[in-house]
Amino acid sequence: MIEALGIDLKEFIFYLINFLILVGVLTKFLYKPFLNVLDTRKQSIQDALDNAEMLNRRVNEKMDHYDRQIAKLEEQGREIIKDAKTRAEAQAADIVEEANKRAGEIIQAGKRQIEREQQKALDDMKQQIAALALLAAEKIVERDIAQIGQDKIVDDIIEQAGSRQWQN
After folding, report:
1. Angle between helices 32-142 and 147-163 in degrees, nearest 10
2. Is residue 168 part of a domain?
3. Measured between alpha carbons, how far is 37 from 125 in angstroms, rounded to an integer?
4. How far apart are CA 110 and CA 31, in angstroms?
5. pLDDT of residue 146
6. What angle do CA 112, 118, 119 make, to 5 degrees?
7. What is the extent of the structural domain holding 143?
8. pLDDT in tens, 12-71
9. How many domains does the chain have?
10. Is residue 53 part of a domain?
11. Is there a domain that residue 2 lies in?
12. Could you tell me if residue 35 is inside a domain?
């Protein structure tokens, strides 16, 4: 039957054996090394992926660490600002207190100065009144001690005192 197709059985077996030997040789020398190259490549890709995954984990850990450090530094910055603000407020309160104290001292000194000036003005007025009284007494003694003359002398003294400008 195979001969009816024009195929010689001996040649067919020979071709089959040659084909199997060729497949065996190709398998031994090409297919296995090719599979080894594929396995090696697959392993290197897997190693690269594992390495990349490990690096990603390390990067994520570093990022988490840096985020924690940034948060910590931000908190420290807020504390520093809060402390500086508190110190500034305390210093401002001290300055206001010192200013109020100095203002009180200045007011007290001003009041004492006013009292001294008032006392001086009163003393000056007493001296002027005493001088006027002496002047009036001299004038009265110099003239005749007549009632009409005394009134004129007092009016003259008042007029003279009015022309002088008394200082308080």
Report:
1. 160
2. no
3. 128
4. 115
5. 53
6. 90
7. 8-163
8. 889 999 999 999 998 888 888 888 999 999 999 999 999 999 999 999 999 999 999 999
9. 1
10. yes
11. no
12. yes
Secondary structure (DSSP) of the chain: -TGGGT--HHHHHHHHHHHHHHHHHHIIIIIHHHHHHHHHHHHHHHHHHHHHHHHHHHHHHHHHHHHHHHHHHHHHHHHHHHHHHHHHHHHHHHHHHHHHHHHHHHHHHHHHHHHHHHHHHHHHHHHHHHHHHHHHHHHHHHS---HHHHHHHHHHHHHHHHHS----
Taking only the tens place, the pLDDT of each residue in 67-108 is 999 999 999 999 999 999 999 999 999 999 999 999 999 999
Query: Whose CA is closest to 76, among 60, 84, 88?
Result: 84
Residue with tokens 């199997």: 20
User: What's the pTM value of the predicted model, to 2 decimals?
Assistant: 0.42
